[in-house]
Amino acid sequence: MARPLKLAVLALAGAGLAAAQEAAEKPEPSEAWLWINFVLLALGLGYLAMKFLPSYFRSRSEEIQKGIADAQEQKRSAEARAAEVGARVSSLAADIEKLRTESQALMKSEGERIREATAAEIARLTQQGEMEIESALKTAQRELREFAAKLALDLAAERVRGRLDSETEAGLVDGFVSDLSAREASKN
After folding, report:
1. Does residue 175 fall inside a structural domain?
2. CB 3.0–4.6 Å: which of 33, 92, 140, 149 could bond 29 by disulfide?
3. Which domain does 27 fall in, by range?
4. How far apart are CA 136 and CA 133, in angstroms?
């Protein structure tokens, strides 16, 4: 297509030269000359447009295509991020429920452990209290026996003192001394 265009330009250029010669013979430009000038100018501009505009449009089209591809890639990336965020948000409710369930189970097991520890401590304290009560009872019984024995001894001493007079006491001492002497003699 460029070849017929070149031929047309040459033909018009030739016609323009012929018209220019004719115009040179005429002092005033004719309407034909104006049309030839217009056609030559239009053909020259058309030639330049045909030479440079396709590469400009092609590069501009490539830039636009690249921009569209970049925008589509950004859109896919944004959609992927949005889907990831959506998945996280949707799984967030499940994660919260899971944590709630785990914490309830943990609280229940901890409560059970505390109940068992409390029951064991109560049993230990009960046993210790029983042992202390038993020990206090034995101590009280022993003290009571000691007190009763002391009272019995005091009462017996009172009675013996009440029955002993100086003559009986001298007789008892003499009898004790004679018994002691007899035992000494039998040992030797």
Report:
1. no
2. 33
3. 2-160
4. 5
Query: How wide is the angle at C-alpha 49 spanned by C-alphas 48 and 51, nearest 5°?
Result: 65
- Enter the pTM of the model: 0.36
Q: How many residues does the chain have?
A: 188
**168 domain residue, yes or no:** no
Q: How many CA atoms lie within 13 A of 139 on its CB side?
A: 6
To the nearest 10°, the Cα dihedral for 150, 151, 157, 160? -140
Q: What's 165's DSSP letter?
A: -
CA atoms of 148 and 118, how far apart (whole Å)? 44
Does 187 reside within a domain? no
Between the CA of residue 124 and those of 113, 115, 118, 121, 136, what are the distances in Å? 16, 14, 10, 5, 18
In sequence order, what DSSP letters do the residues of 134-165 get, joined into one string? HHHHHHHHHHHHHHHHHHHHHHHHHHHHHH--
What is the count of structural domains for the chain?
Answer: 1
- For the chain, 188 residues long, give each residue's pLDDT as a single digit of tens: 556 666 666 666 666 666 666 655 555 657 888 888 888 888 888 888 888 888 888 999 999 999 999 999 999 999 999 999 888 888 888 888 899 999 999 999 999 999 999 999 999 999 999 999 999 999 999 999 999 989 988 888 888 777 777 787 788 788 888 888 888 888 76
73 in a structural domain: yes
